[in-house]
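re the bet — no i am not wrong, look at it urself. input seq straight from the record:
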Amino acid sequence: MKELTLKAMAKVNLGLDVLRKREDGYHDLRMVMQSVYLYDKIRMTVKAEPGIVLRTNLRYLPTGADNLVCRAAQLLIDEFGIEGGVSMDLQKHIPVAAGLAGGSSDAAAVLVGMNRLFRLGLSLEELQQRGVKLGADIPYCLQRGTALAEGIGEQLTVLPKAPNCFVLLAKPKVHVSTKFVYGNLRAGELSYHPDIDGQIQAIRDGDFYKMAELMGNVLETVTVPAFPVIREIKDTMLHYGAVNAMMSGSGPTVFGLFDDRTKAKAAYSRLRGGSIAKEVFLTRFFHNRAEV
């Protein structure tokens, strides 16, 4: 095999709780993760000359050694002494810096691609052990589907498929730094914690409405006061019939879950035609597990 093309799926957090800040500066988390059918495409081609070449459709994205997908490829090249190199063409569709794990998912896809192209024989678990060195979301992005993520996000428990629904994603015209969010989060003073265990049980029961009711993200205690547009997008989705709406990850993307296509399309049209959202997508959950 000399060339392959992979899809890197976006994710949302159906629930996100922060338990404590650790001595190493990271936070202990409990999150319900879900892949959605919005993806970047990465074409990878083996080349005889050493080195990594990255091209992308977004001019402002760095394409040098510091790019996460280049680091993912280099990690395996170094470990396995791979001769030659790889050329990668990354077509970005997942919004950048949006709380949807686009960069982590791209890196995960590259790890899978390198494993296949160079016949490294690594299992999913072995790829995850390497991926966490690059980013806490990468082990989940390698696995995909519905999962409970704990620790810094790398401790994963596979869950049954979340009930199907219509998923509306809207990224506002603001930039939210993950460092800003966690730096301003007062984990020890949170008065509210989402019922992660209750949500997991709702997923096991196939109860869409209970799962949606129990959505919660403690990082909104930082982002909503700082960026009121997040609340505005949530309110718009709820007004048009979302069963619930919430910010994904550290934001700023908001997602709404709908039980009715007509309502979801009306909300999509409203947000696409308005001024509060820069990028809007109407999609669904994605349940297929990754094949390494």
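see?? The chain has a mean pLDDT of 96. told u. also DSSP finds ten helices and eleven strands in the chain. so pay up
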